[in-house]
Design brief:
A hairpin with a 3-residue loop joins strand 9 (about 315-320) and strand 10. The protein has one domain (about 5-335). Helices cover about 40% and strands about 15% of the residues. It has about 375 residues and is an alpha+beta fold. The longest helix has about 45 residues, at about 335-380. The chain has helices spanning about 5, 15-25, 65-80, 95-115, 155-165, 165-170, 175-185, 190-195, 215-225, 270-275, 280, 335-380; strands at about 10, 120-125, 145-150, 235, 245-250, 255-260, 285-290, 295-300, 315-320, 325-335. The protein has 12 helices and 10 strands. The strands form 3 sheets. Strands 6-7-8-9-10 form a 5-stranded mixed sheet. A 3-stranded antiparallel sheet has the order 1-3-2. It comes from Ceratitis capitata (Mediterranean fruit fly). One of its GO terms (biological process) is proteolysis. InterPro entries: MINDY-3/4_CD, MINY3/4. GO terms for molecular function: cysteine-type deubiquitinase activity; K48-linked deubiquitinase activity.
């Protein structure tokens, strides 16, 4: 066994834990997961160049996770470093890239741990194998070689990630898989199952039919809970013939937001459950993870007051970045829309006022007619 990892408090993964972990995350332990999970690290573009702030990866099932990490990287670069110097925070040196990635990974795990202990996994440096290959556990070259570490979220976590960062960033390393496993174990597998909802326990966390990753991985990293529901708070679903079942959505305002556009679900109940609530639409920072028909990206603005200042929302710049290495810059101008909306409201108020006057006159005529008619009847 690795004396260095043992000295740091690491313990070899047990067959039971490895099997349960693979089954929860990928649905089965009898066949290996998709190869991209064992070959996709956290990798930036070239330092000091355009888009050097961005993670890069091919389009695969890790894209959703990478987009969330990218969002926290941008939060650090744009807002945590503000005022330190006059350098453009989006033109990153290698040191800035490293610090931003460490900060992002630490912050996400702290959100998931909710002030509790953090559990991380690292592959054995000596290529040790702790689990026998069998029909119930097919080797994937990573899970069977893991050491498990339990860390304090404040004193130990940041130092630990700094010390072992290269295991997450080296070319063709399983950096994304190591971080996903760490996030799941930090949340705990029993809580992950509860998060996934009783109706979807058989569905693995990674949702193998999603080309760029599952929604539950995104919500786990953003909110600390792997919920498939995006509405605010708790919604009780049921009818008069069944007990109401609570669906736990987003329980508090998020640091980074999430926007979703999906035209595949035509059922109103499904569409409503997948509609982000205000706690995702209006986060603490103007950064949003986006999913458009299954394609993930990050939209962001540099002004930290954007969501707190009504006037700032009238016209603002917005960047969209995809981990494919593409960026789109746009300007959102709501002033024309606001003027049109104001005009429509004014016309509606005028129309309603006119209708009210006309309606009142009609009632008086009817009343007068009734009186006249009554008089005529009396005369008859």
């Amino acid at each position: 066994m690795s004396s260095r990892f043992i000295a740091e408090g690491g313990t070899p993964i047990s067959p039971e834990l490895a099997t349960e972990l693979r089954q929860l995350v990928f649905g089965t332990s009898s066949i290996p997961m998709r190869a991209e999970w064992t070959q996709t690290p956290f990798t930036f573009g070239p330092a000091k160049e355009e888009l050097s702030y961005g993670l890069r990866s091919p389009r695969n099932a890790t894209r959703g996770m990478l987009s969330v990490v990218q969002g926290f990287i941008l939060k650090y670069l744009l807002f945590a470093r503000r005022g330190r110097n006059n350098q453009d925070p989006l033109v990153c040196t290698q040191e800035m890239q490293t610090n931003a990635l460490i900060n992002a990974l630490v912050e996400i795990l702290r959100i998931i741990s909710d002030k509790g202990k953090v559990t991380m996994v690292l592959p054995s440096p000596d290529e040790e194998v702790f689990i026998e290959h069998s029909v119930t556990f097919f080797h994937d070259s990573v899970t069977e070689k893991l050491y498990v570490f339990t860390l304090s979220p404040h004193d130990e976590l940041e130092f630990f990630i700094k010390r072992h960062l290269k295991l997450f960033t080296e070319e063709d390393s399983p950096g994304t898989l190591l971080f996903l496993y760490s996030a799941v174990l930090t949340r705990s597998m029993s809580k992950i199952r509860n998060d996934l909802d009783s109706n979807s326990k058989a569905v693995p966390l990674t949702m193998p039919n999603n080309e760029e990753g599952s929604l539950m991985i995104v919500t786990l990293l953003l909110t600390g809970r792997a919920t498939p529901y995006l509405h605010n708070g708790v919604v009780n679903v049921g009818d008069e013939n069944t007990y109401a079942i609570p669906q736990y959505g987003i329980l508090s305002r998020c640091t980074i937001g999430f926007l979703l556009w999906d035209n595949e679900n035509s059922q109103p109940s499904v569409a409503a459950a997948r509609q982000p609530g205000s706690r995702l639409k209006t986060p603490n920072y103007p950064i949003w993870i986006t999913s458009c028909c299954g394609h993930f990206g990050v939209a962001f603005n540099r002004n930290p007051e954007l969501l707190r200042n009504y006037h700032a929302e009238s016209r603002f710049d917005l960047n969209y970045y995809s981990c494919s290495g593409h960026n789109v810059f746009m300007t959102i101008d709501n002033r024309v829309y606001n003027e049109q909306a104001t005009g429509m409201l004014e016309r509606q108020a005028t129309t309603e006022g006119t209708s009210s006057i006309s309606g009142g006159g009609g009632r008086r005529d009817d009343e007068a007619g009734g009186i006249v008619g009554g008089g005529g009847g009396g005369g008859g």
